Amino acid sequence: MEIRPTTDQDLDVFVDTLHAAFGRFPETPTEGGGVWWAALEMDRSLLAMTADGRPVGTAAAYSFELTLPGEILVPATGVTAVGVLPSHRRKGVLSAMMRQQLTDLRARGEFLSVLLATEAVIYRRFGYGPATYTQRLTVPRRQAALAPSRARGTADAPATGPDPGSVELLRRSECGEILEEVYDRYRRAQPGALSRPHRWWTVGAGQPPVSPAPRYVAVHRDTDGVPDGYASYSTESGTLTVDETIAIDDAGFTALARFLLGHDLVAEVVFDHFPREHPLRWQLADFRAGQVSGDMDWLWVRLLDVPRALTARGWSMDGELVLDVDDPFLGEHGRYLLTVQDGKADCVRTDREPDLSLDVSDLGSVYLGGTAPSTLVRAGHIRAHRPGAAVLADAFFRAERPPHCLHWF
């Protein structure tokens, strides 16, 4: 078997092989064009070929920016389109492709890789760990009233009162540039968020609102008339489903939520990809009205260079932590002294006794601050070598706000 890089001339073979791996047929482009594979970077993709030249497996990679704690933007590879034909599973094809891909990423000087896992049991063995989470919030229309705010607003937490901005209703075809600009502002300040390259919007690759599928879009504007939030939605059979709600601040999100929850002729409003710790449930007059479902992992993270990754993100406390990290898939092991001063980190190899021992996949889970190390200690994933080590690690890895990723790839 050969694992080889692809070129633009391989696109049709790549797409056909991937669809066959999942037992599907390529969908018809939506009105206005746009299919998800239009954004594939063929110079970053791989094909697994048999000795007689038949394609049996695929793997691809996108070039993204990932926002780390501290509002730090770093390059990150988005792994996607991974599949093996049913006739060649359990024969080492997937492992060979993943090993080749990680080798190629390191050769390019990259230190972080991310993916969305179709099955949770597959990618941990390749060093990936779930790092952000998402859920669905359903609110019955008859229980959708928001309670008046009892708090005085501050710069960090504005009160939930009358919004001084405005909400305008547009169609998806009318506001592509607004969506792109607002999302880019949002993702730069949100830990765990990925960039959406301009090409994605141009070719309509991905899910709504990136794709040109018909949607209504509620655009929020600040007091100066500048767009600073949007909600993409559709209605069917009495349900209003929100693809995503993006806002630069809580006041804008609340204004958009009030608009959506006040929509006539619907029985319920469903917010997809809703952040776990968002305050909207607390803003409802009836707390029980917000029904949570579909809680699941979303972005998985893989560290390719532990010292570079740990020194790249921002930190909220000073101190030292010794991490003993095992990477069984790549056959590597390292013990690192993480030293943080004034929010900046230094990470070097050390012989000191470790505070924590963990797999590289678990380090990926805690890296963005969305999973507490103490949770993984209690689960038996991470070993704490001294009392208080888990609590210390929690304080170290905590982010200024919970990480969240909306982007589908």
UniProtKB/TrEMBL annotation:
Specify the superkingdom. Answer: Bacteria
Give any Pfam family that matches.
Acetyltransf_17
Q: Where is this region: Disordered?
A: 144-167
* Keyword terms of this UniProt record: Acyltransferase, Transferase
Q: Does the keyword Cell membrane apply?
A: no
Chain ranges of the N-acetyltransferase domain: 1-153
NCBIfam families tied to this protein = PRK01346.1-4
Q: How does it assemble?
A: Homohexamer; trimer of dimers.
The Swiss-Prot or TrEMBL record describes its family as follows: Belongs to the acetyltransferase Eis family.
Record's protein name: GNAT family N-acetyltransferase
